[in-house]
């Protein structure tokens, strides 16, 4: 085991040498294990019939954008697959299928943390996007995000993010008025403010301005962050062409300095400790009666740990982690059954998890036990929480190891260790953040680190001669899996 320095990160390129080849349901990528199809799920909502259709193609994978991947497809299988997806409402547009990348706060409209229910906006944004022929030219990696005010979607640094301002005005202490949203570009607060009723068209105007900037630059940038000074240039184009913006959404965008219009969280370009932080939903006790309100705590935004969350209507939403983001046919069928029982769509999260909303408090324990027995994780103390991995061997020809098998073996080993030091005991989860002893860890089969989550992550990267474990300024070369497990546990704070 050899200590090494911080590997650093390669900065985003200002342009690409090739056109975007992001897979879709029709544009299938040929991987080492067969065809790979990616099905966009704007807003993450999946109905019971859709879940049962996906079960027929299981196992399926959840992506870091709350989309779904199918692997191992035979040549030509995309055509009958597309027909079935279209019938189920999962492929409403053949021309725009790869650009329907829309993430939304998974608990929006369910609990008291939402300043604005963005679920209807996700539906409206998808429809308007598909109705705009020019926007079919967006790269398949261009990302829209709708944050309900808690900061979870904002933290993803999407290309275009809409986030509500508290009280409907830039001044949260002022008298409430019509809801207002701020537009963030590549995670940067641009100062643009629009009425929430015009958020969809404003986001599309920003996407159109990005395409104009790419054309003017003569590059093949896939993201706003890849354009030199991208956020400022896209903002300037929106403001210098107000007639175009007005025709798109009825009113020209107004601007205010970010400092005078504070967002529910500090923009990504600001000091993370410099402003008020939103709070994810609080877990509720398992009880046969609807729980009372739980006080908020000031913690940074992030994925909600597995477990129950109180809804405003007295029901309960159950957050579940999906080990390595892979859902089996039995798990999908059970989720469909839960969706039918509640009459609510299941919600996929950008952290490769699932939320089952609308459970009766009296039924919570029974559903938790059934879903956990099927292999989904409802315990915030589970060693699976925060563990992700790329496809690895044999699915990816570039991978240097079977990282999924190794990650699972590492989890099994850490479960034994956690139990020995008391980490396996059930305890309340701290809302919105993993405990300090459970920093997220991502296993990657090569230096590309595909699927890596945003933020501070323990990177476990295959080298061909073992693994390299990186976290912050610490790096360790490991010769075998046993050393890798030990090093990962050490940097995660488990030992």
UniProtKB/TrEMBL annotation:
Residue ranges of the region described as Disordered: 245-306
Comp. bias intervals (Polar residues): 248-258
Iron-sulfur among keywords: yes
Keywords on record: 4Fe-4S, Heme, Iron, Iron-sulfur, Metal-binding, Oxidoreductase
Signal peptide range: none
Biased segments, Pro residues type: 275-306
InterPro entries registered for this protein in UniProt: NIR_SIR_4Fe-4S (IPR051329), NiRdtase/SiRdtase_haem-b_fer (IPR005117), Nit/Sulf_reduc_fer-like_dom_sf (IPR036136), NO2/SO3_Rdtase_4Fe4S_sf (IPR045854)
GO molecular function terms listed in the Swiss-Prot or TrEMBL record: 4 iron, 4 sulfur cluster binding; metal ion binding; oxidoreductase activity
SUPFAM superfamilies attached to this UniProt entry: Nitrite and sulphite reductase 4Fe-4S domain-like, Nitrite/Sulfite reductase N-terminal domain-like
Domain Nitrite/Sulfite reductase ferredoxin-like: 32-86, 311-374
Protein's name in the database: Precorrin-3B synthase
Source organism per UniProt: Sinosporangium album
